[in-house]
Write a structure and sequence with these properties.
The chain is an alpha+beta fold. It is 40% helix and 20% strand. The protein is built from 18 helices and 21 strands. It has helices at residues 51-65, 106-114, 116-123, 132-141, 145-149, 156-165, 172-175, 190-195, 228-234, 265-269, 292-303, 310-324, 347-357, 366-392, 409-419, 430-442, 449-459, 470-485; strands at 4-11, 15-23, 28-37, 41-43, 46-48, 72-76, 82-85, 152-155, 170-171, 181-182, 187-188, 206-207, 212-216, 219-222, 243-248, 252-258, 273-276, 282-288, 398-402, 423-425, 463-465. Helix 12 (310-324) crosses helix 14, helix 14 crosses helix 15 and helix 14 crosses helix 18.
């Protein structure tokens, strides 16, 4: 079989990449073409993404891949953020970053108007102030002139796919992250949005992953699972339905893959989210703040003249663990999802503040700080998995950790220890592979998701971590729950 090459453009909250994925009928081979940083920019008190810089980098990456004669391309990226187009298709304003403060107080306003229960019943999405729903509501509340001239709402990856193809639609998996879509009908929750004063005429048609959108310089543009987590889950190398996944990066998405959404009172109380998956699946999951805390601490240390790679920080944390062999009875824990940690800033100081507020001794060294974050993440994963299993009734035999965070061997082992469930870590480039898989299925090169998953199980690089010291970690989890309840 002749090799077929697709280009997968994957945009994360910290960086982006354009990669060529070649398929020879037996394996998927990745060739990095172009990698670039994704840095927000602050202006007049608002935090923006530099989408025009990203567009330039995407074009440059595609140009590098042309010599490989790609048969298609597609963009996936982070959720919830969006651009607004005028009636001529022009971007009205730069895309605001989800950590911007404009959504403060917006959830409460939405609850007062339509009720928390109604929002969840209509969307099945967990409540987080960064959701698109509250970003749009902030524009309504401020009477932003942007809404007066807006003609089309596009999530960030939809925006780039529009610039590539000329087709303005919203792909299902990314549309589902907005808390504005009904996952049962796969249509916008128009009545709820109208009750909040959000104009529904700006919302585009929703299309499934694998839809061909148009062409970019004669290369077909195919919508992958445009949400990067949706793409990452597509590439999970599972051979059993009884698995959980953790898409690990700036955010950690802890979830199960189901055939239908679970939207009931138990799911709402657990604040679980029903996001769209590929080929009729739903991703029931919990968002966890993830390695964002490590990223922000690393930036703080670099600013202070102490530059460390992520490998360096993992080694320092591992050295702290080695001193007492396992989790310490005196270890400090934080709740990664505490609102304190959402905005950018000096997270070293935020960790100290959290510890003092919960009657704990703050970590005193760089290694201890990173260890505190990783152990706290592992215990938060346990909490999320317990909620997911209780609501779904689904047992979990294996946890697949995919994405960039799967390179953190210490966190992988801590996750196995904390949950008591074996962890299979890898592939690292799951979003890129999942993006490519959807393109290849759309092109007829792969038959379906089952064949793709079997291919991944046979060829993907992964490492197994068996649980250890589970009794000690269970005691730590009980103490973690007490600490989190203090806030």
């Amino acid at each position: 079989m002749a090799k077929r090459t697709v280009l997968a453009i994957d945009l994360g909250a910290e960086s982006g990449r354009v990669m060529a994925v070649q398929f020879d009928g037996r394996t998927l081979h990745l060739t990095p073409l172009h990698q670039f940083p994704n840095k927000p920019a602050a202006l007049n008190g608002t935090l923006y993404w530099d989408v025009l810089a990203l567009w330039r980098e995407i074009q440059g990456g595609i140009e590098k891949g042309k010599s490989l004669h790609p048969v298609s391309l597609g963009v996936d990226g982070w959720g919830v953020d969006f651009g607004l187009l005028d009636r001529q298709g022009n971007l009205i304003s730069n895309v605001v970053q989800y950590r911007d403060g404009r959504t403060e107080g917006m959830m409460e306003k939405a609850f007062a108007r339509v009720g928390q229960e109604t929002i969840y019943a209509q969307t099945g999405i967990q409540f987080a102030r960064l959701n698109s729903l509250y970003q749009l509501l902030s524009l309504v509340e401020s009477r932003s002139p942007q809404l007066e001239i807006a003609h089309t709402f596009l999530t960030t990856p939809d925006l780039f796919n529009y610039w590539l193809s000329g087709t303005a639609v919203s792909e299902f998996t990314i549309a589902s992250t907005t808390q504005m879509l009904n996952p049962r009908t796969q249509e916008w929750a128009a009545d709820m949005l109208a009750a909040l004063g959000i104009p529904t005429y700006i919302l585009p048609a929703v299309v499934p992953p694998g839809t061909q959108l148009g062409n970019y310089q004669s290369i077909p543009v195919i919508a992958p699972a445009a949400h990067d987590t949706g793409s990452a889950v597509t590439a999970v190398p599972t051979t059993t339905p009884h698995y959980a996944y953790i898409s690990s990066g700036t955010w950690s998405l802890v979830g199960l893959e189901l055939n239908q959404p679970i939207i009931n009172e138990a799911a709402r109380r657990a604040n679980l989210t029903n996001e769209g998956g590929v080929y009729g699946t739903i991703r029931l999951l919990k968002n966890v703040m993830g390695l964002w805390l490590v990223q922000q601490c690393r930036a703080g240390w670099a600013k202070a003249g102490q530059a460390y790679s992520y490998d360096d920080l993992e080694a320092l944390a591992a050295a702290e663990v080695k001193q007492c062999q396992t989790i310490s009875p005196q270890a400090a824990f934080v709740n990664p999802d505490d609102p304190l940690f959402l905005p950018p800033g000096d997270h070293r100081e935020y960790i100290r503040q959290f510890c003092l507020a919960t009657n704990q001794t703050p970590p005193a060294t760089i290694g201890a700080t990173v260890r505190c974050i990783l152990e706290s993440l592992a215990l938060t994963y346990r909490d999320a998995l317990q909620r997911l299993q209780a609501v779904s009734g689904r047992s979990v035999q294996i946890i697949h950790i995919v994405g960039g965070g799967s390179k953190n061997r210490l966190l992988n082992q801590m996750t196995a220890n904390a949950t008591g469930i074996p962890v299979m870590a890898g592939p690292v480039e799951a979003s890129v592979l999942g993006n490519a898989i959807v393109q290849l299925i759309a092109l007829g090169e792969l038959r379906d998701l089952q064949e793709a998953r079997q291919l991944m199980a046979e060829t993907a690089q992964w490492q197994l971590y068996e649980p250890a010291d589970t009794a000690v970690w269970t005691e730590a989890y009980q103490r973690y729950q007490t600490i989190v309840a203090r806030r």
